[in-house]
Amino acid sequence: MKKGKIIAIGGLVIVAAGVAGYNLVNKTPDSSLSSSEKISQIITDGGCVSCHSANPELPFYSKMPVAGKIVKKDVDSAYKAFDIEPFINAIANGEAPNEVDLAKIEKVVLDKTMSPAKYYLVHWGSSMTSSKTDMMISEIANVREKFFENSLASAEFKNEPIRPIPNSIPVDSSKVLLGEMLYHDTRLSADGSVSCASCHGIQTGGVDNKRYSEGINKQLGGVNAPTVFNACFNFVQFWDGRANTLAEQAGGPPLNPVEMGSASFDEIVERLKADKDFDKMFTEIYAEGLSQHTITDAIEQYEKTLVTPNSAFDKYLKGEKDALTAQEINGYKIFKDNKCATCHAGVNMGGLTYELMGVKDNYFAKRQIKRNTGLTDGDNGRFAQTKIERDRFRFKTPGLRNIALTAPYFHDGDIETLEEAILEMGKNQSGKDLAPNEVDDIKAFLNTLTGEYKGVKLTNTNL
After folding, report:
1. What pLDDT is recorded for position 259?
2. Which residue among 147, 297, 337, 440 sits deepest, i.e. has the most Cβ atoms within 10 Å of its Cβ?
3. Tell me, what's the pLDDT at 27?
4. Treating both helix axes as pointing N-terminal to C-terminal, what angle do 276-285 and 173-183 enclose, rounded to 10 degrees?
């Protein structure tokens, strides 16, 4: 046999072996598997944990001088943006994953941005073939349908990452009245000058529209006051997540020396008990009478009524196609195209995860120049509670409902307008300089998120 033919045959054998190997590592999961099992297998085959994990599975070439630096940078950047392990664990245990994690994975599959080309060149099995992509999109929809009830949406929008706000959630109506009274009661503060409503006004979009709220003795807080409307849908409360429930949150400001300044709840209880009519009313509902637990429980029950359904966008999701204009619909498309609907997913369009402020750009470097000051304690975000370095500059994502009414924006209240907020989020989170028409359309969409409170469209008397 001639040498040329031998080389040609050898080449064909190598190609055939390569194709066989490719097909083996890129095998689509068996159709008999459950949705969770299919998703788990594709993620495992894709090597996602190699980068998006606290304990990455580093490849052999990570020890090489040049390649190692590239690998370390990529792994640090990937883990900083997204920790995939909680999602994998939830799926493996047949539990509901976080809606944001689900939306993030769905988005990268739709955009075909994972795995990166340089990773795929070495790890063939990470390739998202068309059959894997189709399967992932289908199974993610199944997971969403199974765990995130969306009966309010029309059939067309059942699989959207955002769900309409329900008209109400279960509460104890007898306790709601007490909670409303307490919410507006300045006796929770040491000098009788501040109530919950002072910083979270019901008539002002659930906020006070100040950069920092004013407590007793005209002291200023260190972060911007988030809206109380729809806070019941948040997975934790406060920017740094230090309260797990609305009741825990309600127990914080009364004892904060900058906010309400009371020394203890015993002190607050004594002031309230001096009002015999109020004390009697309270004891009729709570057998144990006034206490920190009953006071914060009543406020929580009231705050659960502060939901704002039936925004124009919710009506659109429910099937009213004429509820939005063409510009507003395009704004929603741009919003999703730029990954905004991943972190701002769910009923409240946020409030479900801690996210890093400045994934693509250094927000805090720019803020220091503008402020002409150093960083504040409030800038630390979740790190203030955990002391874990990865949590520095990571905050509970704010919900976007009624966002047109709640300026100024971000944890530091340093962004005065919605246009500036949109531009900053484009740069910091998506790494994109949005065009003026894109900003206009996104703003038009965000204006459709103002809902109704007690059947009337929410307004802000400050605006």
Report:
1. 97
2. 297
3. 75
4. 150
d(CA 388, CA 184): 37
Distance CA 295, CA 175 (A): 10
CA distance 314 to 134: 28
Spatial CB neighbours of 245, under 8 Å, sequence gap ≥ 6: 237, 300
In terms of Cβ atoms closer than 10 Å to its own Cβ (0-12, 13-18, 19+), residue 54 is: exposed
CA-angle at 358, arms to 421 and 438, nearest 5°: 40
Q: What span, in angstroms and rounded, lies between the C-alpha atoms of 158 and 274?
A: 53
Q: What is the pLDDT of residue 50?
A: 81
Helix, strand, coil proportions of the chain in percent (round to 5)?
55, 5, 45
Instruction: Report the pLDDT value the prediction gives residue 16, as an integer from 0 to 100.
Output: 39
Q: Residue 25 carries which side chain, given as an amino acid letter?
A: V
Mention every residue, 6+ apart, whose C-beta is less than 8 A from residue 206: 200, 227, 228, 229, 231, 306, 402, 405, 406
Cα–Cα dist 65/75, whole Å: 16
> For position 22, what pLDDT does the model report?
45
Catalytic residues: 259
Name residues of the chain where pLDDT drops below 70. Answer: 1-26, 59-62, 66-67, 117-126
- Give this prediction's pTM: 0.90
Angle between helices 418-425 and 436-446 (to 10 degrees): 120
Q: Are 242 and 431 in contact (CB under 8 A)?
A: no
Q: What is the pLDDT at residue 31? A: 84
pLDDT at 44 (0 to 100): 85
